[in-house]
Amino acid sequence: MKKFLALCCCLLLTSCFEITERIKHHDDQSGEYTLMVDFSKSWFKTKSAMWMEEVDGVKIPNEQEITKKLEDFKVKALKIDGITNVTTKTDFDQYVFIIKLNYGNLKALNAVVNTINNQSNQVHFSSNAKSFERIASYPVPEKVVKDPKKKEDLEAASITAIYTFDKDVKAVENPNSRISPNKKTVFLKQSMYNVLKKSALMNNTIQLTP
């Protein structure tokens, strides 16, 4: 099936949006992962595109197809060793789509993100007792980024990473990221247009206190 991010690529042809990746990572390398794609700021354009069923020659999935694809993802994710409590949510009033799950280790998390992205053997996260690393990779069709008609929407769109830890954060490598006042959470937000041109803008190595 077309995976979650591929689905969002179809929808981003229609309007601006926000993607938020949230992780709560524990010292034992387990954690909670949430991915939210939010079209609420342009819900009418998104709804209209679904009614038209096609934009620029690309088929736009309807509500039933989106629900089915997310249910298919849930079934596949639960087959990955170390992945539990997978839930999906669809809000067709505001056009917000959410995936939530628990992971037992980063091998499991990498596997489930590969399932979301329709990739294989890609390492997205690594960690040890002293650090946590995000290696970003977004398999978005090149024509989306190069289409001048999409530039304005993509520049208005954003991608945000919010990572929370049991230990205090000592330092971050990405200069655009911020550490929360309690030193437990790292925030990083970038323009979707810039990230789709250069995934490394979402890379980060987070140093944790021993």
* Main sheet summary: 7 strands, mixed
Give me the Rg, rounded: 17 Å
Helix content: 25-40%
Q: Note poorly predicted spans.
A: 1-7
Strand pairing plus helix content: what structural class? alpha+beta
The helix/strand order is HEEHEEHEEHEEHHEEEEHE
Gross morphology is globular
Strand fraction equals 25-35%
Strand order of the largest sheet: 5-6-2-1-9-12-11
**Span between N and C termini?**
43 Å
Mean pLDDT: 84
Overall strand count: 13
How many helices? 7
Task: Provide an overview of this structure.
By secondary structure, this protein is of the alpha+beta class. 30% of the residues lie in helices and 33% in strands. It contains 7 helices and 13 strands. It has helices at residues 4-12, 43-52, 63-77, 106-117, 142-146, 151-156, 192-197, and strands at 18-25, 31-38, 54-55, 58-59, 83-91, 96-103, 125-127, 131-134, 158-165, 169-172, 178-179, 185-191, 204-208. The strands form 3 sheets. Strands 5-6-2-1-9-12-11 form a 7-stranded mixed beta sheet. Strands 7-8-13-10 form a 4-stranded antiparallel beta sheet. It has a two-stranded antiparallel ribbon with strand order 3-4. Strand 5 (83-91) and strand 6 (96-103) form a beta hairpin. The longest helix has 15 residues, at 63-77.
